[in-house]
Prior knowledge:
It is a single chain. By secondary structure, the protein is of the alpha/beta class. The chain folds into 2 domains: 6-179, Flavin prenyltransferase-like (Rossmann fold), CATH 3.40.50; 189-288 and 299-398, 3-Layer(aba) Sandwich (Rossmann fold), CATH 3.40.50. It contains 13 helices and 21 strands. Strands 12-11-8-13-16-17-19-20 form an 8-stranded mixed β-sheet, with helices on both faces. A 5-stranded parallel β-sheet has the order 2-1-3-4-5, with helices on both faces. Strands 6-7 form a two-stranded antiparallel sheet. The two termini are 30 Å apart.
Amino acid sequence: MLKDxxxxxxxxxxxxxxxxxxxxSLLVKxxxxxxxxxxxxxxxxxxxxxxxxxxxxxxxxxxxxxxxVHSVEHISVAEKADMVIxxxxxxxxxxxxxxxxxxxxxxTTVLACRCPKAISPSMNTAMLENxxxxxxxxxxxxxxxxxxxxxxxxxxxxxxxxxxLPSPETLLEVCLHTAAFEKDMTGKKVLVTxxxxxxxxxxxxxxxxxxxxxxxxxxxxxxxxxxxxxxLVSGPTNLPKPAYxxxxxxxxxxxxxxxxxANFDSADIVIKSAAVADYRPATVADNKIKKGDGxxxxxxERTTDIIKTLGEKKRDNQFLCGFSMETENMIENSKAKLAKxxxxxxxxxxxxVEGAGFGTDTNILTxxxxxxxxxxxxxxxxxxxxxxxxxxxxxxxxRG
Length: 400
């Protein structure tokens, strides 16, 4: 996702430097060009050659390196940078940057950067909570820096509290959110539903389906990375909550209906990818139902048809996209659903086709509107999410 992006990774002198090594590796795996700049103290924890082996670029440490005598290296790096992330960031570097002090390779480069910047404070809890440090952090926030909140836990000094550098995966997500995509959805509010619902039978049992929520979560993440304000209404899943997304956790179909209706009016785009139960037990037992000698039947009643309700209420300037998972007659059934529910688009897939079923990391979507249909090839759910958003934006633009 970061192909052709130039990421400046600033590394300062803290024990958490080892996590910066893994972050550099993760960024390279996303095809980013990573330029590491280290403070002198950082080189006491990790040698520059470590980062050079991981990134394929010389790790910069010296403003006056004679190898760059014919160019002003910190200005050259700054002009090419698509993003700066400093992790770990000591109290010292935070103080310097907040007050415009530029006395080494890292600070002089960052002071010349006009790209988005993020910083991850990592230090002893008392140092972090010192009012001077907090004031400096707020100054950076005021100047447009994204502050990555430190984790809590056991610190290298033996104390327990806030100040740990977040995981490399968390730091990578900041980079992806900041630099991976053009912010072509800025100003748009997107409502996404994902996952299954659970319909209680008694305090122990429930009816549900095989949905894992992966497709809906991919859509929510993709929209957020493209600048949208995203609300994700999620049934029970095992997925981590996506960063930069407002997640509303629900359990039942009725819960989802209420959460969706509470957020519908303010949404510009609604994408209903959740697998909502069509039926629920007509009665819910107060106690566990005991087994008997004979068979048992469970009377069911219809749940509220959420997407039909949205189709009846949607405004002309709203875009409503549904999902249709079929096992036969996919196109015909999906077109009928498109018309019946008054949708602008439906994303259809066949659960029997390899690579398009529940729980996979790939999908094969056919995007159907009242005018045409577009079959997408098999792709990762992240790629499918962006392809879906591309089509939605294109059709919204065509409306004028």
